[in-house]
Amino acid sequence: MADEWHKAGLAQREQVIFKDLVSVIGDVLAEALKQRDERISALEARLAQLEGAKAAALADAFQGPWLQGKAYARGALTQRNRRVWLALVSTTEQPGASSDWREFPLGPERAA
C-alpha cells in the first residue's frame, strides 16, 4: 500500500495523517452506528409493549351487560337489549338514551 501512496504523490507524513484520519472516521462511524442500533432496539421494545397494551385494552373493554348506576369509562363496551354499545365519554347514563354512547355494529345488518 505504501508504494501505491508513494506513486499517488503522498509523502510519509501525509500517509500517517491519512491513516489517522481514516481511523478516526471509522471510530466515529462505529459509535454513531452503535447509538443508532441502541435507539432502534429501544423503539422496537416500546412498540411491542404498546401493541401488547392495545390488545389487552381491547380485551378488557367489554364490561358485560349494562348495569344501572355503574360508571363506565370512555372506551368501555357493554351490552343492552341485544346490542353492544361503546362509551364515548365516562358515563353512568343508559346506552341508547344518551349521546354518551354509540351502538357498536356487530354485523352487516347493523353497519348502516
Structure characterization notes:
By secondary structure, the chain is of the alpha+beta class. It has 2 domains: 2-59; 66-110, Ribbon (Seminal Fluid Protein  PDC-109 (Domain B)). The chain is built from 2 helices and 4 strands. The chain has helices at 2-7, 12-61; strands at 62-65, 77-80, 83-87, 101-104. A 4-stranded mixed β-sheet has the order 1-2-3-4. β2 and β3 (83-87) form a beta hairpin. The longest helix has 50 residues, at 12-61. The mean pLDDT is 86.
Q: Identify the quaternary structure here.
A: single chain
Shape call: rod-shaped
Strand content: 15-25%
Number of domains: 2
Instruction: Tell me how many strands there are.
Output: 4
Biggest sheet architecture: 4 strands, mixed
Summarize the SSE layout with pairings.
Elements lengths: L1 H6 L4 H50 E4 L11 E4 L2 E5 L13 E4 L8
Parallel strand pairs: 1-2
Antiparallel strand pairs: 2-3, 3-4
Provide a short characterization of the protein structure.
The protein has about 110 residues and is an alpha+beta fold.
Keywords:
2 helices; Seminal Fluid Protein  PDC-109 (Domain B); 112 residues; alpha+beta
